[in-house]
Amino acid sequence: MRIFKKILKALGALLLFVVALAAFLLWWTHPKRPVNGSFVREAGASTFKFTDIPRGRVLDGEEVDGYARKLLGEMTLQQKVLQMSGDSSIWDLIKLITVEKGKYNDYAITAGADKRLAIPPIAFSDGPRGVVMSHSTAFPVAMARGASWDRDLQRRFGDVVGKEIRAQGGTLWGGVCVNLLRHPSWGRAQETLGEDPYLLGELSVASVEAVQAHNVMGCAKHYALNSIEETRTKVDVRVDERTLREVYLPHFKRLAEANVASFMSAYNKVNGDYCGESRHLLREILKEEWGYPGFVMSDFFMGVYDGKKAALAGLDLEMPWTMAYGKTLVAAVEKGEVPLAVVDEAVLRLLRRKIEYATRPDPMAYPASLVRAPEHAALAREVAEKGTVLLKNEGGLLPLDEAALQSVAVLGRLADAPNLGDYGSSRVYPPDTVTVVEGLREALGTGRVVHESGADLAKARAAAKAASAVVVVVGFDQSDEGEYIPEKPNKEEWGGDRENLALKPADRELILAAAAENPRTIVVLIGASAITVEEWHEKVGAILTAFYPGEQGGAALARLLLGRVNPSGKLPFTVPKDASRLPPFDNTSLTVDYGYYHGYTLAEKKGWEPRYAFGHGLSYTTYAYSKLFLDAKEATADGVVHASVDVTNTGSRAGEEVVQLYVGFPSSKVDRPVKLLRGFERVPLAPGETKRVTIPVGVKDLAYYDPAAKAWLVERMEYPVYVGPSSRQADLLATSFKVPE
Ligand code: BGC
After folding, report:
1. Atom of ligand 1 at shortest distance to CA of 174?
2. Which of 283, 295, 399, 645 could connect to 314 by a Cys-Cys bridge, CB 3.0–4.6 Å?
3. Distance between CA 201 and CA 615 in Å, rounded?
4. Active site residue 299
C-alpha cells in the first residue's frame, strides 16, 4: 500500500515537473517574452493614450503625425517592436486546426494591440473574392471583375466589402491583389484583375477608394512579381529595371498614389532578395521614390526571415505573429545593428494609419445585418453578369428564345456544383450558392431543364439529342488551380499552378459528344483565366467564359443565356491558340527570368494572331465606331490629349460597350510594344443610340523608363492613337498626335 502511494506521489511530482518545464519552455521561447526587463512601463506612467486623440473629425496630416509621435514617446523599445508584429501565436494555429476545423480567418487577424496605451489593433480580413471572415457575400473572383472593365462596378463592390468588414469588426482588407497575369498557368490567376498594368491600376484603385471610404484600410499585394505559385516562397525572379518599372510596378505605383493604406510584400525573391527584405523594392522605390506614406506588412508565415535585413529594408509589420522581429529586433537595436530611428519610422507609419482610420467620422453605422444583405447578393449577380465574356456566338445562337425553348440539357460535372474558386486564403464561405442548373431551373421551371454530369457519356448524348439547346459547363475547380497549400490534409484543396491550358480530355469529349448530337451547343467555361479552345471551338455555336462566377453565378448565367441581360464583359487577358505563344512558365526552377513582353504585347510584337484578343468580348447587339478625333494634334510632355469617338448601338437590344484606347510607339528609338492600353470607358447604349465618348490620355503615361538615366522619358515623336472594341488591330480606328521637340 505504502509503496503504491509512494509511486503515485513520485508520478504526480514528475507530471508536475513536466508541466512546469513545458510552461517554462513555452514562455522562454515565446517571441514576445520580455527582453532586458519589462515590456511595459509601470502602470499609470503614461500621460497620453490613443483614446485621448479627438475623434469624429478628419485630422490633418500634421495633427495625425503629432499624435503618433506623442504615442511613440510613451513607448519602450519593446512596445515599439510589438507594434511591428501580428498578435497571433501558436495557440491560434492550434485553435484553427482543432476548434475552427481549418476555417481560416473566420474572425479578424489582429496586429499591434497595446492595452497600456489603448492602441487598437489592425484587424485583418482577407479577400479579394469578398470578405473572408464568417459567411460573407461571395462575389465572382477578381478576374471576372477585371473582365467587367467597369470602374463603377468595382466601386460598388468595394463599398459592399467595406460595409461587410466593418459589420464584423475588421479594419483592414487584404484583398487588393494586383500581380499581373504573366501566364495563365499561375495558380492564383483568379485573384488578380488581368494582364495589363493600366487596367489593373484603374480597377484596383476604384475598389480601394470605396473600401477606404468606410474607414477600412486597403492592402495592395503581393509586392512584387508574385505570379508562380508552387515555388512562391523560394523562387528568385530576375528582372531588369526597365521591365520592373514599366510592366510589373505601374499598378502598384497607381495604388500608392491613390494612398492605399498598406502594402503586402510578396513571398518570392526579386533579383536575389526576398521581397520582404528588399531595400530596393520597399525603401528605395516605394517609400523614397514614390513617397509612399503607408506601411508595409509581410505576407504570412514565410514572408520574412532575416529580421534585421527586413527592418532596414523597410518592412514595417511582420504577419501574423512574431518570428523575425520581437526579441531579435530588440537585441539588434540594443547592439546598434539597427538604428532606433528605423524602428521609430516603422511604428510611426503604423500609428499614423491607425489614428487616421480610427478617428475619421464614419459615413454610416455598421450593424451585423449588413453581412449578406439582399442588395449585396444582387450586386454579386450583377458582377457575374458584367464579368462574363461572350467569346463566340455563331448565327446568333444566343440568346436562347425563352418562349420557343422546349427543353435545355445542361451537361457537365461543374454545372450543378458550387464552384466559387480555390480553397486558399481568398476563399469566401457563403451559406448558399446558385449553380447553373439551379439558375436555369429557377428561370425556366424544373421541367424544362435536364442535367447530366457527363460521367455516363451515352446518357449525356441522349440528353443533348433530345433537347432544344445544350449548355455544357466545363473547366476547372480548386483541385486544378489555386493558392498552393500542400499543408492541407486533403489534396483536392491544394490548388497550385494549372497544368494545362486546354480543357481536360473528359470535358473535351463531352463537348464534342454534345455538339455531334445537337448543333445548338453552347459552352460555358469555368476557370481563372485563359483556356485554349482549339480542338473544339469550331464545333460549337457559342462560347462564354464565366470565370468562377460567385454565389449568384448560376442566376447570372441563366439571365445571360436567356437574354434577360446582354453580355458586356471583355477579356482582361489574351487567349492564345496554344501555350507556345506565351512566355515560358517554369514552376520548378528556383531562378526565373521575367522578360519585357507577355500577353498582347508579346503576341503583337511577334505577329502572332491570338484565338481571342485582349479586350475581345461580344454582345447580343452590335456597335459601330466612327468620327475618331483628338482635341489637339500636338501636346507637351506633361499635357493631356482627349480622344473622342462616336459609338452607335446598331442592333435592336440595349447593351453596354467597353470602348478601349491604345497608344502606339512606331517611331521610338528604343524597343517598345506595338501599342499599350491607355484608356477605356464603359457606355450604356439604347438600340439606335449614338454617344460621343471622350477619353483623356496623359502624355506622361507614354514615357518609358531609361535605366541609365534612372528616369522616365517622354519621347518627342508621333504617337498613333487607336480606339475601338478590342485590341485587335482590324477593329480599331486610328489617328495620331505629336510631342514636338
Ligand atoms: C497569401 C496572402 C494572404 C495571406 C493571409 C498568404 O498565404 O499569399 O495573399 O493575404 O496568406 O491569409
Report:
1. 10
2. 283
3. 16
4. yes
Alpha-helical segments (H) within 371-468: 374-387, 436-444, 457-466
Furthest-apart CA atoms within the chain: distance in Å: 107
- Number of Cβ within 10 Å of residue 16's Cβ equals 10
* Secondary structure class of 601 (helix, strand, coil): helix
CA of 109 to the centre of ligand 1 (A): 12
Nearest CA to ligand 1 atom 3: 425
CA R_g for the chain: 28
C-alpha cell at 532: 485554349
Q: How far is CA 217 from CA 161, 165, 193, 203, 207, in A?
A: 11, 10, 20, 17, 11
Out of 86-100, 123-137, 455-469, least confident range: 86-100
Tell me phi and psi for residue 45, to 5 degrees. Answer: -75, -20
Which has the higher per-residue pLDDT, 5 or 555?
Answer: 555
User: Alpha-carbon distance 339 to 318, whole Å?
Assistant: 18
How far, in Å, CA of 520 to CA of 525, rounded?
A: 16
State the Cα–Cα distance between residues 116 and 663, nearest whole angstrom: 56
Calculate how far, in angstroms, residue 284's C-alpha sits from the geometric centre of ligand 1: 24
Give the DSSP letter of residue 502. B
Q: Which helix (H) or strand (E) holds 433?
A: none
- 3 state SS for 64-129: HHHHHHHHHHCCCHHHHHHHCEECCCHHHHHHHHCCCCCCCCCCCEEECCECCCCECCEEEEECCC
Peptide bond between residue 399 and the one before it cis (omega within 30 degrees of 0): yes
> Cβ distance 137 to 130 under 8 Å?
yes
CA dist., res. 699 & res. 678, Å (int): 10
The residue whose CA has the least distance to atom 9 of ligand 1 is 425
State the Cα–Cα distance between residues 302 and 276, nearest whole angstrom. 10
Tell me the pLDDT tens digit for each residue of 690-719: 999 999 999 999 999 999 999 999 999 999
Least confident of 32-46, 231-245, 415-429: 32-46
Between the CA of 177 and the centroid of ligand 1 the distance, in Å, is: 10
Averaged pLDDT for residues 204-214: 98
Out of 96, 300, 304, 428, give the residue to mutate to test ligand 1, the one with the largest number of ligand atoms within 8 Å of its CB.
Answer: 300
Within 10 angstroms of residue 198's Cβ, the number of other Cβ atoms is: 19
State the pLDDT at residue 600.
Answer: 98
User: Which grid cell sits at 674?
Assistant: 506595338
The whole-number average pLDDT for the span 446-461 is: 98
Report the pocket of ligand 1 as residue ranges, CB < 6 Å. 126, 174, 221-222, 299-300, 425
pLDDT (average), residues 71-84: 96
Q: Give pLDDT, residue 10.
A: 78
Average of per-residue pLDDT across 393-420: 97
* Choice among 126, 159, 273, 299 that is catalytic: 299
Name the nearest CA neighbour of 164 among 357, 360, 376. Answer: 376
**300 C-alpha vs ligand 1 centroid, how far in Å?**
6
Residue 526: strand pairing partners: 475
Instruction: Tell me the three cell numbers of residue 327.
Output: 526579441
The DSSP annotation for 205-237 comes to HHHHHHHHTTT-EEEEEEETT---STTTTT-EE
Q: What are the cell numbers at 569?
A: 464583359
- From the number of C-beta atoms within 10 Å of its C-beta (0-12, 13-18, 19+), residue 571 rates as buried
Percent helix, strand, coil in the chain (nearest 5)?
A: 35, 20, 45
Neighbours of 456 (CB within 10 A): 11
Within its chain, how far is the Cα of 426 from the centroid? 9
Angle at 65 between CA 59 and CA 68, to 5 degrees: 105
Determine the Cα–Cα distance for residues 261 and 320; give it in Å rounded to an integer: 18
Take residue 223 and report the three cell numbers written for it. Answer: 509586392
> Closest ligand 1 atom to the C-alpha of 424?
7
Q: Are 397 and 578 in contact (CB under 8 A)?
A: no
